[in-house]
Amino acid sequence: MKDSGKSFIDLHSIEARSAYGMTDRDYIRSTPKSRRIYRRACKVFPAGVTYRIRHFHPYPFFVRYAKASKLFDIDGNKYTDYWCAHFSLILGHSHPAVVRALQDQAEKGYHFGVAHELELDLAEQIVRMVPSAEMVRFTSTGTEANMYSIRLARTYTKRVKIGKFEGNWHGGYDSLHVAVKPPLDQPQSGGLAENALRDTVVLPYNDLEAVRKIVKDVEFASITVEPIMGVGGFIPAERDFLKGLREICDEKGCILIFDEVITGFRVGAGCAQETYGVKPDLTVLGKIAGGGLPIGVLTGRTEVMEHIDHLKYAGNDLSFHGGTHTGNPMSMAAGLTTLKLLERGKVYRHIGELGNKLRRGLQEAFETKGVPAQVTGVGSLFGCHFTAEKPVKDIRAASRANKEIASMFHQYLLDRGIFLLTPELIHGAISDAHTRGDIDCFLTTAESFADSIR
Question: pTM above 0.90?
Fold first, then answer.
């Protein structure tokens, strides 16, 4: 059925489906243009994509444009988007206020490479909203911000050992690119030099007693943690676990770093640190902080952050930071507009209500139909783990879930115009543009899927 306004197929409305849904053959039939473009892409992109996570079987569809909660592909198919541009578009696609801000800024200049007031405006907004933020520096990505956070912590403490947790993802920076996914003791990528990893100590997530034993005799520069584990399928840290980490870092004299690239401004205006009531020394932000445009943010205590100040420090006391696109005015404009809207609180009430409805509904749907599953998440974030194991509180438990059922669910949703990633571990986010109708459709589809595999 074609959308009368833009001639797009609404996959939600197609009822001529078998009980088990479309097959790969049906997907291929409905996406011929994407298939042809993917063949082109394979000639210039390894695996045909610009980021491995964007690939799924048999090939990804290619988007023509996006609006609100919908993606429209080049074949005329419409999908409700729960990936939200890697969770960065909390307001939805092409939000009118953000579009206007970008249009206005583009006419004034889309990059300067020198100081401008929008940098200050966004930095002051972040300081006003984030409990731990006193001083700010911008980068272009979350990976860069994580890299600079480690360099800064080492500069400040004059130590080299760093701690990071199993299943926590902090971007592609070598020293933190370890123990992200099982097998946790194997290299997570080629090209990681042994010297880059020898000072990284891997810690168990949500196990404070084990952490205390490991850190007892180690002089750490920093410990970095995701308050809500992203790559593991939105597994929340336990409140006492984060409070315990704060105590450990105080005792050891090391820097506590919260990686809030995903959770920053996603779970609340004050980020996860406000939700948990735990204040880190440094915070790494991204995604929503730039309104969905490229950005990374390093922020934290003045006493630590001032070691980036080349007017005060030099040599081993100065932590270098820089980048051609730091403080890019387009990212600043989009981020400032987004954060001002979020500060009002209305968005969080809406997406929080929908998130609770979706998580409860998914758990009930699977339990009622006898499908072993645990649904995790906080606020607008959700993850589906097809396992009877309770609770799913770390990457080890998440990795034991049934990946085959997850992949089947991903295909089932995709065939009905519901998009999220990743096939082997279903997790996604809700934007302000999503409606109760979108959530009802998701839950109806999940119930149908549970019926089909029962």
Answer: yes
